Amino acid sequence: MKTIQIRTSERVELIDITSTVQAYVSEKGTLNGIIIIYVPHTTCGITINEHADPDVVRDIKMQLGKLAPENAGYHHYEGNSDSHVKSSLIGASETVIISNSQLLLGTWQGIFLCDFDGPRTRNVHLKIMAD
Amino acid sequence: MKTIQIRTSERVELIDITSTVQAYVSEKGTLNGIIIIYVPHTTCGITINEHADPDVVRDIKMQLGKLAPENAGYHHYEGNSDSHVKSSLIGASETVIISNSQLLLGTWQGIFLCDFDGPRTRNVHLKIMAD
Amino acid sequence: MKTIQIRTSERVELIDITSTVQAYVSEKGTLNGIIIIYVPHTTCGITINEHADPDVVRDIKMQLGKLAPENAGYHHYEGNSDSHVKSSLIGASETVIISNSQLLLGTWQGIFLCDFDGPRTRNVHLKIMAD
């Protein structure tokens, strides 16, 4: 198991961590199996989506902002309930298949850490289960 | 594999099952691996979010109620389509890393069974894959 | 690992792939473990929900269409940002427990490939981790 640290720079930011995840798979020398990418923060999520055109991430951020606006009559005293709602909608982890030492992602797929309440330094756990 | 039963008491309720999941990991004596927490009901979900301030859960329930209102011109004859929509938004399972015999959760993270069509007695499957 | 191909016939379509996933588990002869159902496309998702009354799928499609309308001031040049948003809301994979050679699904649960930008031919990866 390995924990990586990511520094975010905006309140809502999706950071492409694909190459870091692949580097860990290569470092471990895992031929086949799965990897769990897990974020231990309640105002973050992990998602897989297009990492070619940055406008896709921009549109996802925009639309999530409509589904959980910053102010919507929430009760939580910290004022970041929108971030918690987004965290549950996106989910705390993704599982990716490892095949022939490579993440078995689609052509356009990248793995993103979503920070919904940044900027902060965030941890992401990487856990490989080998065949 | 183990199946636990949870009795819910409201139509929409998030119940913290973290200690029950940890108890199973301890009982099995698993040192390292992963655990899948899976709900076999189509009007439920499993989510990970803050279990310190109960207002976070209250806000998540409120906002999900806006994303899938109880009445929204649905066609399903049972009248609980809002519950089915929430189930797909939240997802039927979560995967958590086990490290040194402990669930590797963040400080504020708890594991919740979400019942979107209670009150009922619900099953949750716990499945450990050890290293 | 196995990759199956699914031909979709509408722009937004949920296709029940439960029997195909079960057939792979039977073919492999896996007694106990887990299976990851993973879609390598950024405008698709995998969800688990009711496959008895087709109106449940109809209602899920309808409600997701309200959460991510086809036109909502998006910036992505391909004009399918609604599909990308839905993909992140639903998620790229599901994990299902295998118990006594059977998918441990609930009575009403089916596994669906969600195509949010069809019609196309889509791939779905099936990966078993045996006990």
SSE series of chain A: EEHEEHHEEEE
**CATH uppermost class of chain A:** Mainly Beta
In whole angstroms, the N-to-C terminal distance of chain A is 16 Å
Percent of residues in helices of chain A comes to: 25-40%
Mean pLDDT level of chain A = 98
CATH superfamily label of chain A? YjbQ-like
Q: What is the third-level CATH name, the topology of chain A?
A: Jelly Rolls
Widest beta sheet: strand line-up of chain A = 1-8-3-5-6
Please give the number of β-strands of chain A.
8
How would you portray this structure in words?
3 copies of one chain form a homotrimer. The first copy, chain A, has one domain (2-70, 77-130): Sandwich (Jelly Rolls), CATH 2.60.120.460. The model of chain A has no long low-confidence stretch (mean pLDDT 98). Chain A is built from 3 helices and 8 strands; from the N terminus they run E-E-H-E-E-H-H-E-E-E-E. Chain A has 131 residues and is an alpha+beta fold. The two termini of chain A are 16 Å apart. Chain A binds chain B through residues 1, 36, 38-42, 67-68, 72-78, 81, 84-85, 87-89, 91-93, 95, 123, 125, 127, 129, and chain B through 32-34, 47-50, 53, 55-56, 58-60, 62-64, 66-67, 89-91, 94-97, 99, 104-109, 129, 131.
